[in-house]
Amino acid sequence: MPRPRIHKLPPLLDRKIYKTGQTRGADDDVIFQNRVARSSTVLIPYNAWPQCRVPSTTERTYENGYIVLLSPTEYFASPTIAEQLRATGLALGQNTLVFYETREQWNANNPETLGWSPASQRQGALGGQYVARVPATTAAPKIVRGFNSTTMKGAGIRVYEYARSITIEQCRSQLEALYWMCRDSNEAATSNGMTPDDASSRRARTLENCQTEGLLDKDRLRNYRIINANDRTICPLCLDELSAHGFFSRMAQAAGREVPDLTVTQLNLFHIEELRTGVLNHRPYNVGWGHHHCNVVVKDSGVTETLRWMREIIDRNIRDGHLPASNSGK
Ligand SMILES: [Zn+2]
User: Fold this and answer.
1) Banded model confidence at residue 326, pLDDT cuts 50, 70, 90
2) Residue 267 alpha carbon to ligand 1 centre in Å
3) CA dihedral sign of residues 289, 291, 297, 303
4) Measured in angstroms, how far is the CA atom of residue 241 from the centroid of ligand 1?
5) pLDDT of 193 strictly over 50
6) Rounded to whole angstroms, what are the CA distances from 54 to 90, 110, 221, 261, 288?
7) Distance (Å) from CA 272 to ligand 1 centroid
8) What's the mean pLDDT in 118-128?
9) Cα 24 to ligand 1 centre (Å)
10) How many helices (H) and strands (E) does the chain have?
């Protein structure tokens, strides 16, 4: 018997889940690519090369390669730099570039007078020895060299945003399951264009697929504060149950079906342990959904560190008499 076809998610939700596999946005003038797959070529600062040489203990290579970036100081201050690089598997123009970020660096060792070319490839021979992103001053225009045409805009992604394709897909599957585990997910899906039957069947299929793939281990999800004891999706910082309406912007809600509840806030991808160089933290049991506001507070510190910081603030405010010891007091 053919399996019933899987129905499409409302476009806004579909897009939100899809984007979790992409890196954050970058400006034109920086060296990073703007919203590309997390599996793209990674940029590794030279000082992080020892810890980032392989992605993890179980992943031996980066799917689309890597480029190690040296500062001009690191490169030009050492007469034996070529040997040092070779000793750690690096070679200028092959997998390593000098990255100019300031005008002082540019003037001190101008790559054009050295006969160097700006790099033009992300993999294989890089086609040059350097890349430059030097901001303009009142006296001089900006210097942008290498990876600056539309298709090559940005040399690569931040190494800590990397995840291989299969991990990106597992995260997407689990993140969709977490949508359906919100207490009002069916209702929010139907107010955004799905029929009740389509929503129920997609929900059932998604949860089932995740379990088949070895995802959706509820104990682990509870442990990592992604769901609560009732198997409802929660914000990893404030632990509030999430309303699925938060996945849809207000404007996109069907006319006449707007949610009057002002507490409905935007929801974002949430990394429980922050993304940082040396670990791969975009992985199924480290991603959940949380309030935009809570995400802003956690930022690059991680949930545990943020809670410690919050407690210090609260304790100090209580101690100094600016806050009652409990919210029930006056
Ligand atoms: Zn929250």
Assistant:
1) confident
2) 9
3) negative
4) 9
5) yes
6) 13, 32, 27, 47, 26
7) 12
8) 94
9) 21
10) 11, 8
pTM value is: 0.89
Strand partners, 22: 37
Q: What is the pLDDT of residue 26?
A: 74
Spacing, Cα 281 to ligand 1 middle (Å): 20
SS (H, E, C) 294-330: HHHHHCCCCHHHHHHHHHHHHHHHHHCCCCCCCCCCC
* Distance from C-alpha of 308 to C-alpha of 314, rounded to nearest angstrom: 10
Residue-level length of the chain:
330
| 5-20 tens-digit pLDDT | 778 999 999 999 999 9
Q: 34 CA to middle of ligand 1, Å?
A: 27
Q: Does the pLDDT of residue 217 top 80, yes or no?
A: yes
Residue 250 pLDDT level (bands cut at 50, 70, 90): low
Ligand 1 centroid to Cα of residue 304, in Å, is 14
134, containing H or E segment = strand 130-134
Residue 2: predicted pLDDT: 63
Angle between helices 165-180 and 196-212 (to 10 degrees): 130
Q: How far is the CA of 62 from the centre of ligand 1 (A)?
A: 34
CA neighbor of 148 nearest in space, from 120, 188, 112, 127: 120
CB 233 within 8 A of CB 178: yes
Per-residue pLDDT tens digits for 30-62: 899 989 999 999 999 999 999 999 999 899 999
Distance CA 281, CA 277 (A): 9
**CA neighbor of 285 nearest in space, from 204, 200, 225:** 225
How far is 22 from 171, CA to CA, in rounded Å? 12
